[in-house]
Design a protein that fits this description.
seven-stranded mixed sheet; alpha/beta; UPF0173; 28% strand; Metallo-beta-lactamase, Chain A; 14 strands
């Protein structure tokens, strides 16, 4: 399984012969200016919520890649009106695709679409693919509901927001790892804007002191999971 980071909360998972793109916000992200969006390929695009820093490139990339978009019904309705036909609407629950299982789980946040309309509930995803279990929390604060995941899964990786202000910060993310019992974290949603800038070395040191791994790939970097 490969993970490529595109900045903010946008990343690509390559697993089970599929390319899964999450929360596409690249061309409008000043720190992702070196990413060539025209070269991005995807079979599925998974969207956690409707805020612009998660959907700014959604319609463009859905048309370019002909990927199937997985999202809340309200987001599906919004993109359908813009000509996107390959869609799979979900809500909190799970569905088995031919490449793996996706469960949509709650996130503590808000959600509206770029036109100001209601974006449905904010969410995260748990994927079971290539014999691994991966949790992408989406934009969320620390919530006790995360403890339920430990009863259902043996998570291999958790992809967590760590920038604070709008979401969990590094300290809250560490607490979250104890809730759902996962020692390997990939950080997202940090350093894009001044209000979510972090000291990356301090973050790495905090995780190391708890004997946990925090991975912070550079924008455009691909790592193996």
């Amino acid at each position: 399984m490969k993970y490529t980071y595109y900045g903010q909360s946008c990343f690509l998972l390559e697993a089970a012969g599929k390319k899964l793109l999450f929360d596409p916000f690249i061309s409008h992200n000043p720190i992702a200016k070196n990413i060539d969006t025209t070269a991005i390929e995807a079979d599925y695009i998974l969207v956690s919520h409707g805020h612009a820093d998660h959907v700014a490139d959604l319609v463009t990339l859905a048309k370019q890649t002909q990927a199937t978009v997985i999202a809340m019904p309200e987001i599906i309705d919004w993109i359908s009106k813009q000509g996107i036909e390959k869609v799979h609407g979900m809500n909190f629950g799970k569905f088995t695709f031919d490449w793996g299982v996706v469960r949509m789980v709650p996130a503590t946040h808000s959600s509206s679409l770029p036109d100001g309309s209601y974006g449905g509930n904010p969410a995260g995803f748990v994927l079971e693919v290539d014999s691994k279990q991966i949790y992408f929390a989406g934009d969320t604060g620390l919530t006790i509901e995360m403890k339920v995941l430990a009863e259902i899964y043996n998570l291999d990786y958790a992809i967590l927001p760590i920038g604070g202000n709008y979401t969990m910060d590094v300290d809250d993310a560490l607490i979250a790892t104890k809730y759902f019992d996962c020692d390997k974290v990939i950080g997202v949603h940090y350093n894009t804007f001044p209000v979510i800038e972090i000291d990356t070395q301090t973050a790495l040191d905090k995780f190391a002191r708890e004997k946990k791994t925090l991975l912070l790939p550079a924008i455009g970097e691909t790592i193996s999971l």
